[in-house]
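Page 42, continued from yesterday. The earlier attempt failed because a stray header line got pasted into the input along with the sequence. Redoing it now with the clean sequence only.
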Amino acid sequence: MSRRAGSLARAAQKQISKASPFKLRVRESGIHRLGVFAAQNIPPGRKVVEYAGERISRRETRRRFLEGSRGRSRSLNYLAGLDSYWAIDGAAGGNGAELINHSCEPNLILRPIRKRLWLVSLRKVRAGEELRYDYHFAKNGERVRCHCGSPKCRGTINVR
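This time it went through. Structure tokens are written below.
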């Protein structure tokens, strides 16, 4: 792990440890860069961690998607839709949940609950397992290749 990635992992570990009722670990991922892993079993149907960050409008979401978030390239996008108007930018004030990677065979789902975004377990997540959710990028948007490695991989992060 590079020095910069190690520094990011340590900072994210502090944040996510405070943000989740479960023990989670940030470390290198086989999917993409860093990932978040369960350090204990997580039962199905539980709120694992809030997807935190700056709440931004549709217009600002589009600008950040096209130009990139503060200090980050356009290719590292941590934007998650809250509703038809608001989105959360995990790159600005995130809590480590923005490092949870995409998978076509997820163990979490992103759910809006009382005007906040939560990652909720779809099934029992075993200790040591990487946390993953389906990003559902736009069907008609720029195609983004998927690296999840799942037998059910659709080849793209975009919805088909």
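Notes: Strands lie at 24-28, 34-38, 47-50, 54-56, 79-81, 87-89, 101-102, 108-113, 116-121, 132-133.
Reminder to self: strip header lines before submitting.
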